[in-house]
Amino acid sequence: MDLAGHELPSGSARLEPYQNWLLHDAFYSPPRPEPHPVAAFVLANRGIGICMADLFRLFGSDINDGPLLAESSIELHCPLAEDADYEVRGVIESVERRHSRRIGPFDRITCRFDLLQAGDLTATVTNVFAIPRPGEDGTP
Amino acid sequence: MTELPGWKLDHVDAQRMKTLALLLADPNPIHLDADAARRLGVAGRPVNQGPSTMAMAANMLLAAFPGARLTRFSARLLGLVLAGDSVEGGGSVIEREILDGQERVRCQVHLDVPGRGRVLEGEAVLVLPASRAADDR
Asked: Given an 8 Å threshold on Cβ–Cβ distance, is A72 in contact with B28?
């Protein structure tokens, strides 16, 4: 299956005030009403309409194999708010076969998530995952 | 180029990883269970989530520019941060500009785990509060 361009099911997320407090604390940040900027990542991750296990299954991987995030980019077009509803849309932007001395062949999979509040784009989160492809000839 | 003040977190807390796993809805066992991380050959201790390591760098930036708003942050995660680690950070301002009457700073940042090396490199843009921008002028 060619994953590039594949749209992920959209969903929604909301950061309740108590979750905002917990998230600041989990991020080593003094709790305050304004969400931490990296809360955009959390909202995207939780709000997209596919769970992480199924997302990695779509990648041909298994979340129990301990996949890791390689890169992430967060763009906040306006401040996030607690107690607000965000629509989350996502797309697999690209899949590139790479080769590493340490992990061998792997796919570099880039996913973009858009957070919208009342139809307006609030934040964009772009995550890059490195998915090992052991046994596949990935040498460029 | 202006160096950012040094930043340090003394202890990465496994309990916070568990809270974050719930908030992220992230079932990856390497963040929860040292035995799972060991069994997968990843590490002998729970592995800090990538967004938490990114948040550390964001905290460093927001401490360097009180009242600023972080509008853009890109990070490459280069190594693992493990429960019990300490983390040190630094960086520099690489550009300042006034856009639509607001002062923006572009910064390079990095985080290191002493003894294991660099774990994050990134770049960020912050919008400074109006009073701070006026003071700086």
From this structure: no
Backbone angles phi, psi at A39, to 5 degrees: -60, -25
Number of domains within chain A: 1
User: A77, A109, A72, A84: which is closest to A19 by C-alpha?
Assistant: A84
DSSP state of B47: B
**Cross-chain Cβ contact A69/B42 below 8 Å:** no
Say if A118 falls within a structural domain: yes
Fold for the domain defined by B2-13+47-136 = Thiol Ester Dehydrase; Chain A (3.10.129)
Question: For residue range A1-26, what is the model confidence (pLDDT) as tens digits?
Answer: 689 999 999 999 999 999 999 999 99
Across the interface, do A42 and B51 touch by the CB < 8 Å criterion? yes
Q: ipTM of the predicted structure?
A: 0.94
At A75, which CATH number? 3.10.129.10
**A47 to chain B, minimum CA–CA distance in Å?**
9
Distance from CA of A34 to the nearest CA of B (A): 11
β pairing state of B7-9 and A104-117:
unpaired
pTM metric for this prediction: 0.94
pLDDT in tens, B49-62: 999 999 999 999 99
Q: Which residue has the tokens 């996502």?
A: A90
